[in-house]
Design a protein that fits this description.
This protein starts with 6 loop residues before the first helix and ends in a 53-residue tail after the last strand. The protein is of the alpha+beta class. It contains 18 helices and 28 strands. About 35% of the residues are buried. It has a 23-stranded mixed sheet that branches. It has a three-stranded antiparallel sheet with strand order 25-24-28.
Length: about 775
Amino acid sequence: MTSTSETPRRRRRIWPWITVVMLLVVLGGGAAAVAAYPRWAAPYVEEALVSRLAARVGGPVTIDEVTVDYGKIKVAGVVVGSEEGAQLTLDEVTIDFQREGVFAAEATITAVEARGGTLQGSLAACEALAQRLAGGSGEPRGEGRIKLAVDSVGVSELKVAVEAEGRGSVRGTVDARFSPADDRLELKVHRASATAGSRRVSASAIGTEVTLARGEDGRRAPAFPITVTVVGAATAITPKIAVAGVRGRVELKDPALSELSVELAGGFSDERATREEAATDEPPKVWSLAGDLRRDLSAGDLQLRMASFELGRVPQALAALPVEDSADATVGGRLDIKFAEGKAHLEGDLEVEGINVKHALLARRVVPDLGFAFEFVADVDPAARAVAIDHATVRRGEVELKLSGELIHTAEQAGRHYTVKAEVPAVACQKVLDALPMELVPGLNGFRLDGQFVANVAVDINFADLDNLVLEGKVDLDGCKVKSAPPLVAPGRLSGPFIHRAVLRDGTTRAVDLTPGSGSYTPLDQINYVVAAVMTTEDGGFWRHRGFLPSQFAKALRRNLVEGRIRLGASTITMQMVKNVLLSHERTLSRKLQEMFLVWYVERVLSKQRIMELYLNVIEFGPGIYGVTNAARHYFGKDPSELTAKEGAYLGLMLPSPVRRHVHYCNGELTPAFQTKLDRIFGLMASRGRIDEATYNLYKDDPIVFDRSDLDTPEVCKAEIKRLMDARHTQRAATGLLAAFADEALPEFLDEEEEGEPAGDPIDGDPADGDAGGSPAMDDFMMAGE
């Protein structure tokens, strides 16, 4: 049995609706005491009603007008207030009664009906008002002159606005009917809405039937279980997508609402549906939810089913997704949840077919016909904000990605810990390539592969100990062999002379003729000191790795997590060569996937010397200044073979941001901060053996002296920098694998001006030389501003 002390707290949710019914019962009983008065006695009736109501509620009561007729009393403009702040108004109340005889002083009240009005205030205040109205020793019986035989007490079109002490609110228009004979309350709320924090739920209609029973304290309370029916409900599940058109029932098992049973079905819409007071066009039913649940998650079993359906059936949701022309795409799946001891065990699957994805982070163009199957088993601990993935498998075609691990995502960043293992079981290399839509990797069109591909990666990220971050494993392409390749990347072309054209940020092009004697090409053995410089600033392990530096991936990830943004990319010289000669500078997953494959490829078909030679002859060293030959002439009026060691170091230091750093040329001198950077780089070139001690001592104090032949005026020079930086076209190789793509602009955040942070970043030392600790003085070297 529920104790008296617990009763008020547990009954709070129903009191706003009982308040209105109790008022009508009290109003009818008060009217009964004076119902036998003749029509001219209306003032006495009004006075009696006001006094009796005021005595009962302990607050102000006003009535605009009372009209007494044979068999009927009409009361207009009833306003009842409470000391706690709740207020109930009724526009019109009609009380029906029957006289025992024309001259008899007896009458029987048969019905009380109210139409229009408002109930507003806090939940606690409404509860207190309802308890006062329901309390007392019963209504006066008119000293034997009046009989109460009320068949029904009804209210319609009552607007309710109740606040739950800062925890949310409830609003809607209420129709209610109470049958005193069996203490049964029928309740229906139209255009209902409830908020709790940022969460909002709306419904076209919510209805229930409640039987009221007197408890040990003598007060009426709902008898449980209570079944609530829902029509046209909606709530947002993401900022853009909502479940909507929800129909079904929710059964409340007990007064504390600690146990529920649900049977609901609905569709999807956009978030606007949750802001509409009434939904006339309901989405088709595409999902269902059924089962039992304890609110504390100590027990329960829920089944969510979503039959495969075409996205065109839910146009609002379709419009909110990053897709295009995907009305025929299908999605479907299931999710089974078992609750125990506050935790949840999940088993489910999802299948998506035919979605055409349009998202700037994915690719420049729409990626069509994406589909995959996803199956998983996991355990969720909401209190710990933890998910343990027993296993999960993503399938596309004949390729599987298997995942397992644990994700702990606490509110405080220091408590977060992610451990994940990913594996791609052995599969034919060509099957992997076939599983990637060509619109996602257009540069790989034409490659045919033999062999087997496997991959396994393990990540352990503990935000309380990022110094010991783990990123290990292998993406093994070594078992793959290239049977054929597109002509643009054939070894014969890349090893021989060709003309490279690059598209600038303003959409114009520059050409570099990679033919001996062309005047814009310099063989590697005739490039003085620049190789030593870029080995120091860009990629210290170039001659020893195969295009990637896995150890640097972990360092880059650690630095990105510490700074809370993507800053370091561990980009090797081979990766930069591939990006500049064959691809583009766009920051998309599409480019990265193509870049990774092409790096693996060129490292196997080209010599290291040729990769370095291509890199130095096509890379941008300033605004529209492509290749080391043009750069040496522009900055110093020399051929690359004539550069001093200090001048070579300067050109190497230009590469992370060639357009911005051209400002030193505009000004005719280096800033003190940039001079310090140059001196540090020059010192590292010597300490790492890339120049000998004699060369270092010979040039260490030499200033950088620019050849000013190409300079118009400093102002014009700086204006050109600003113009290019403000331009929004993406730099790319016009003669590369993406040449067929339109030259449209990308959003600013997807367009790289910088070449990317180097793999051999001086911050972390030179991994190839074994001094990964680096020098403390260099800790802010690459981070410092201009």
